[in-house]
Amino acid sequence: MKLDDDDRSNVEDRRGSFARGAGVKLGLGGTVVLLVLSVVFKQDMFALLGDPELSASTQASPQQVAERQASEVDLERTAVSSFNDAQRVWGRAVDRYRPARLVLVWDATRSGCGDAAAEMGPFYCPADQRVYIDLGFYRELAARFGAPGEFAQAYVIAHEVGHHLQAVLGIEPKVRAAQRRDPSRRNALSVLMELQADCLAGVWGRSAQERDLLDPGDLEQWLAAPPAVGAD
Questions:
Q1: What is the pTM of this model?
Q2: Percent helix, strand and coil across the chain, each rounded to 5?
Q3: b or e along 181-199 (b: 16 or more beta carbons within 10 Å of the residue's beta carbon)?
Q4: pLDDT by residue (tens digit) across 161-206?
Q5: 171-181 vs 186-210: helix axis angle to the nearest 10?
Q6: Tens digit of each residue's pLDDT (9 = 90 or more) over 64-120
């Protein structure tokens, strides 16, 4: 993709600072994300939260941090650039849009929605209006699910920014209230929230295409991803 926006005014880099407590406590949003990932990846992601490593307090050395960050330069550029671009698109389209923040993490961190492990994948926390991502997820996206390329990586970020837009527009709190009123609809409403976030990411993708930001093959690579992870 032709994205090159290194503005870091809304970026927090927590890589190298591992906030690990006595266990990961998930908020409602985190639980939903983990449930969806368990279905998609056909693996019990909740079981991973019982990993004894999560109870160990660890701190990387400066050299280890520098080496690992250096290995993620290209992934970081794509994440930051696509985050800035998606926010710019919605900022122009929605008068009351307020920027979210992007948090780069390794392994685990604390969010406004509770402690979070990298195994959860990228997620948005409405409580603190932040998008969290361990850039290692991009390698997993390419290696295991056949979705390499910057557009697939950028689309992941755009999906999470879509969740932020849902919060800004008041959709997210209305859905949560409806889930509390009728717990039997909790899963169905969560699925609809995810589908709408995908739709919003698609709107951003169309904007990127119209602005000639896609390289040849970008779209084809991304379209191969949903079947690879078992989603229609």
A1: 0.78
A2: 55, 10, 35
A3: eeeeebeebbeebbebbee
A4: 999 999 999 999 999 999 999 999 999 999 999 999 999 999 999 9
A5: 160
A6: 788 888 889 999 999 999 999 999 999 999 999 999 999 999 888 899 998 877 777
Q: What residue spans of 144-185 are helical by DSSP H?
A: 150-168, 171-181
DSSP letter assigned to residue 22: S
Residue entry with tokens 């122009």: 92
Task: Give Cβ neighbours of residue 90 (< 8 Å, ≥ 6 apart).
Answer: 97, 161, 165, 204
Q: Are 131 and 41 in contact (CB under 8 A)?
A: no
List, in order, residues 6 or more apart from 222 with CB less than 8 Å away: 147, 149, 151, 152, 155
End-to-end CA distance of the chain: 25
Which residues sit opposite 115 in a β-bridge?
A: 110
- Picking from 54, 171, 48, 151, the residue whose alpha carbon sits closest to that of residue 110 is 54
Closest to 78 in 3D by CA, of 145, 164, 25, 156: 156
The enclosing H or E element of 53 equals: none
Q: What is the residue type of 68?
A: R
